[in-house]
Design goal:
There is one protein chain. With 202 residues, the protein is an alpha+beta fold. It has one domain: Lipocalin (Beta Barrel), CATH 2.40.128.410. Helix content is 29%, strand content 36%. Strands 1-3-4-5-6-7-8-9 form an eight-stranded antiparallel beta barrel. A hairpin with a 5-residue loop joins strand 7 (163-170) and strand 8. The chain is elongated and about 80 Å long. The termini are far apart. The relative contact order is 0.15.
């Protein structure tokens, strides 16, 4: 009887030791050296209408500054396109608003330049799309900045058809511009300047 009791006690102690060892092992795994940082989501910031308008205004101003920087840099480098949204013929003459920007533009690619307008008239025009396309060589480029921060870029476009003088003004803090083209019937082009480099000029 005593021998059986001694065996039972021994088994119990061994089992208890094993259980303790297993528990300690689990604790060691759960309490490793990994450092966790719990982030509590911040409460949404409630803005007043005035604050929202102010934030949106600052964002617009930032976007305008970026657009101006890109446009002025493209003028300085001589790789840009002025996408037209309005064209006026003559000093106080006919003005066309509903034009296709993809076919009405002023393009400068280094020493190569194009001026094209297309009014999509039924008569087709010289270029078949109601206007004319002048492709030529860019000469006598000049760039200057006035006290208002506007950028003035001018050059001569020499082609087999005619020589055109093009004067572009990029307005400060935007990419909006106006171009005056002389050498024939005066043409004024309103639009925006974007950096552009044709694959043939890369």
């Amino acid at each position: 009887m005593t021998k059986k009791l001694l065996i039972a006690v021994t088994v119990a102690l061994v089992c208890g030791f094993c259980a303790t060892a297993q528990t300690n092992e689990e604790i060691d795994i759960e309490t490793s050296d990994v450092q966790l940082q719990m982030i509590t989501p911040a409460e949404p910031i409630k803005e007043s209408k005035k604050e929202i308008k102010e934030r949106e205004k600052k964002m617009r101003e930032l976007n305008d500054d970026i657009a101006f920087a890109k446009a002025s840099n493209s003028l300085r480098r001589g790789y840009f396109v002025l996408i037209a949204n309005t064209i006026q013929f003559g000093n106080m003459g006919y003005r066309r608003y509903d034009i296709n920007s993809n076919s009405n533009f002023i393009l400068v690619q280094g020493d190569d330049g194009i001026f094209q307008f297309a009014l999509n008239r039924s008569n087709g025009g010289a270029n078949g799309i109601g206007g004319a396309t002048h492709r030529g060589t860019v000469r006598d480029k000049r760039i200057k900045y006035d006290d208002n921060g506007d950028v003035h870029f001018e050059y001569k476009l020499i082609s087999g058809k005619t020589n055109a003088y093009i004067y572009i003004t990029l307005f400060h803090n935007s990419n909006q511009a106006v171009a005056r083209i002389t050498g024939g019937t005066p043409i004024t082009v309103y639009g925006e300047i974007l950096p552009y480099r044709d694959k043939d000029h890369r």
